[in-house]
Specification:
The chain has 97 residues and is α+β, with helices and mostly antiparallel strands. The protein has one domain: Double Stranded RNA Binding Domain, CATH 3.30.160. It has two helices and eight strands; from the N terminus they run βαββββββαβ. It starts with a strand and ends with a strand. The model has no long low-confidence stretch (mean pLDDT 85).
């Protein structure tokens, strides 16, 4: 599990939409989608099919920081779009085994 911290005032849903758009593939040979759903008031879940990973979880830990919990195999698919949108200085991650 990797915990990714993103410094932003954007909503959970907006961050989830960004990640889903960056990782959904639609062509005639392949239809891989990431879908975001609200689980509770402050938690959003992204359903993925990235190497059998069931989901990524997005929640706010501070007014200006969002945490995303994701499987190790999917982490590059989450970190790269976040860095592109918010910049390297606003993204941190922590590996937990």
């Amino acid at each position: 599990m990797i915990y990714i911290y993103c410094k932003t005032l954007d909503t959970h849903n907006r961050i989830g939409d960004l990640l889903c758009r960056a990782n959904s593939v639609r062509d005639k040979n392949k239809n891989d989608s990431w879908i975001i759903n609200e689980a509770e008031d402050d938690y959003w879940i992204i359903e993925t099919n990235c190497n059998q990973s069931p989901a990524a979880i997005i929640y706010r830990i501070r007014n200006d920081v969002v945490c995303i919990e994701v499987d190790d195999d999917c982490a590059p698919n989450v970190i790269e779009p976040l860095m592109e949108k918010y910049g390297f200085d606003n993204i941190k991650w922590l590996l937990a085994k």
